[in-house]
Amino acid sequence: MALYVEGLSGRSAHKGMAQFQEMMRQQxxxxxxxxxxxxxxxxxxxxxxxxxxxxxGFKNLFHRFLQVKGPSVEWIxxxxxxxxxxxxxxxxxxxxxxxSVADSLNKLVVVKLNGGLxxxxxxxxPKSLISVRNENTFLDLTVQQIEHLNKTYNTDVPLVLMNSFxxxxxxxxxxxxxxxxxxxxxxxNQSRYPRIHKESLLPVAANLNxxxxxxxxxxxxxxxxxxxxxxxxxxxxxxxxxxxxYIFVSNIDNLGATVDLHILHHLVSQPNGKxxxxxxxxxxxxxxxVKGGTLIQYEGKLRLLEIAQVPKSHVDEFKSVSKFKIFxxxxxxxxxxxxxxxxxxxxxxxxIIVNPKVREEDMKHFVTxxxxxxxxxx
Length: 378
Known about the structure:
single chain, 6-stranded mixed beta sheet, 3-stranded antiparallel beta sheet, disordered N terminus
């Protein structure tokens, strides 16, 4: 059975469908705004202000999610990155170091991503508090590494921990043990975003509690949230006023991610106006790294490609160490003024990964929206 309307051309039908889809998107955004407002009303005081800032970020993410029309990556357009886009480390190291390494180090901040729990390692609590060697935890060893830098070069490199609502309380309890170490430690929290129902696309949670029945209702959005949450915390401005120019970002459980003086000198030695604003440490991909992100050239630009973005029919090709030879270590050097500029211009146009989740007890399907850390226009 077909419906025929006289005078309705194919072009008109297409326009009508586009208008209908836009109306549905607006309705979904309006419904989401109303639900988020209800959640805001369940808290008061400073928590309310933090919640509002978090939700502004989520609204932007949700808006971009609704605008997506099909896959974010067309496989046929993917190309290998140009050879000159990756600087060999030996070439950078061959330039040597300046007489005053301290001048470079005093422009640096070390940021550790500390939002994860140790459940994947069979432990409770923050991953950073797991004992690694001789009863030293990941956090102990990180503090020792930075303290060694500060003592060796008579510098003031601070440590910043990006916590989540899962790790913040336990981490802050332990920080007092480092009061007499030669490291200033700051913390800020990444956002708290609502997990949404797959069918209705509305929040799962009924209030802002993150325990009990509400435990599945919230999630920390991960590494890609560092720009907005760092900026919103006020800490970014504070560090810029202190003369800091770059952050070195890595995972708290990556003890091999230490400050490399050659890379730092490579960044700060360039003239103002021509400095790199974003550097990713990469290495050769091995068969142990087949699920990790890789660099590609896409429509004339460098982009990070994660396995969650890859169509199922091309997953084996993505895992190939011959076609995709580069592995993202997730060690990043980022300009603080660049983060500030792009946040104030609302110019962070990042890719979104949609992660499905099924609650085992009732088999309900939820969705989390996660921004990629390396696709902003830096």
